[in-house]
Amino acid sequence: MLTISKAETCQTVITTFEMTPGTCQDLMEELVDAYENFISRQPGFVGAGLHVNDAQTRIANYSQWKRREDFQAMLRSPEMRERTRRFNALCRSFEPVMYDVVEAYG
After folding, report:
1. How would you write 28-84 as a 3-class SS string?
2. Region for 56 from its dihedrals, namely left if φ exceeds 0, alpha if ψ lies in -120 to 50, beta otherwise
3. For residues 54 and 35, what is the distance between their CA atoms, to the nearest angstrom?
4. Does residue 83 lie in a domain region?
5. Which residues form the ABM domain (predicted)?
6. Is residue 5 part of a domain?
7. Burial 35-58 (b: 16+ CB within 10 A, else e)
8. Quick one: 32 exposed, middle or buried, by C-beta within 10 A (0-12, 13-18, 19+)?
9. pLDDT (tens digit, 9 = 90+) per residue, 69-101?
10. How far apart (Å, rounded) are the C-alpha atoms in residues 75 and 26?
11. CA distance 94 to 50
């Protein structure tokens, strides 16, 4: 379960994908498949959310991991490297960035 709190010790990763409306659904299907069949089963995975803007030109992915090293190990796996190549073919760019929660409201 995702929890946004500065008291949490998990690693937060936010990835933004830029694409055209013509490839948005294809990329979303790839991302859903990756989470359902691979990413969510990796050691240290806590939870994730996928968000698409109404113009279908951006997908934002928010994920949490127990440790930074868990996320990095998942990224370096042969299966994820193959999936990353497919993501790359469907979008202009994407960038996963690790964050620490500084404050949370609500």
Report:
1. HHHHHHHHHHCHHHCCCEEEEEEEECCCCCEEEEEEEECCHHHHHHHHHCHHHHHHH
2. left
3. 22
4. yes
5. 11-102
6. no
7. beebbeebebbbebeeebeeebbb
8. exposed
9. 999 999 999 999 999 999 999 999 999 999 999
10. 21
11. 14
For residue range 40-76, list pLDDT tens digits in order. 999 999 999 999 999 999 999 999 999 999 999 999 9
| Domain assignment of residue 84, given as a range | 11-99
Residue that the structure tokens 């379960």 belong to: 1
Domain-embedded: residue 106: no
Give which of 15, 11, 76 is closest to 46, Cα–Cα.
11
Q: What residue has token string 């620490």?
A: 100
